[in-house]
From TrEMBL:
Species the sequence originates in: Nyssa sinensis
Bilayer topology: Single-pass membrane protein
Keywords: Membrane, Signal-anchor, Transmembrane, Transmembrane helix
Residue ranges constituting the Trichome birefringence-like N-terminal domain according to the UniProt record: 60-113
Protein name: Uncharacterized protein
Ranges of residues in domain Trichome birefringence-like C-terminal: 114-402
Amino acid sequence: MVKKQQMVAGTWGIRCSFQSLAALLVTILVAGVIYLTGESGSLIEVPLLTLKHADDSMSHCNFFSGKWVFDNHSYPLYKEKQCTFMSDQLACEKFGRKDLSYQQWRWQPHHCDLPRFNATALLEKLRDKRLVFVGDSLNRGQWVSMVCLVESSVPPTLKSMHTSGSLSTFKAIEYNASIEFYWAPLLVDSNSDDPLNHRLPDRIVRVQAIEKHARHWTDADILVFDSYLWWRRPKMKVLWGSYESPEGIYKEVKMPRVYQMALKTWSDWLEIHINSSKTQLFFVSMSPTHKRGKEWGKASDQNCYNETEPIWKEGYWGSGSDHKMMRIVGETIDELKIRGVKVQLINITQLSQYRKEGHPSIYRKQWEPLTEEQLSKPVSYADCIHWCLPGVPDTWNELLYAYIFRY
């Protein structure tokens, strides 16, 4: 049984303060160095990214610093079976999960509340507009979550779903509003861009090419990007030129340098093509994985399989998240701000670190038949990367909702 208790998140980011202490805290932050408690119990310096981007526009409160509160009265915000467009990759209840407590945790920021998600208000905000999620399968999961959050407010005859190549579009016809997902796991051009057949052993990326993707979301009103999971390898093969040309130049580039190169291309495109007075821009930070049970006190051969509770350890940080890559995102966002383009970071990393029980594990559609060996050892095929819905991505969208409305 899930503990009906509150889990206090680590001091990830700048803590909110009471108005009477605002001046004092500003002085302290300018003069001092900020620390947080790490997994080892020792003090480690907060990454630069967090200090600069924890809450740029909403200085009265940092939504990303808080605690998980068990709340089976208000959550989940929708029922899995009632979401018309639920993905079988994320429908954990449908595929046999009995413990549904993962649906009933609410993120509670310190010293303030997240605004309650209002589907009708969001649809009205999106009237005659496009909200486009761009990225990998984790961003697709957030898109599915957003569709599930709003579609119950739209009559069946006034909504539609259409997929064409890499672009999937949910349409609320009465509002002329669209909530879309575009598959671009590396943001820039790569040989993994096919939305169905992209599992290739030899991954190749064209770090200076983005137009093939970007032309599909140039006129979007709200853009939500992510790109992290597909970069998690020691090095990547980079191509200068085209795949068809015999004159193309290939070179293996180590991480995180190749990631930095790709984000430079992405940021240059935003500066040239996006009207920042019209378009709201967001970047969702890395989604943590829970593949190593040893990191939260289980045996070394265990993972998220059979987990039913969050991690209680304050300041927990797993090996599936990379500080260096987060810093690169932060530096890229900083440079864009200097160039007059504002991108708001949605920092979901620390709050999601605690939710080891929120993954599909074995409770999802298996696209290929499982072997007898796999069936005898469920840990071997447990999905500890993606997230069940309803679940953690709904919280990401509650955060996004707050920033869209500039609470």
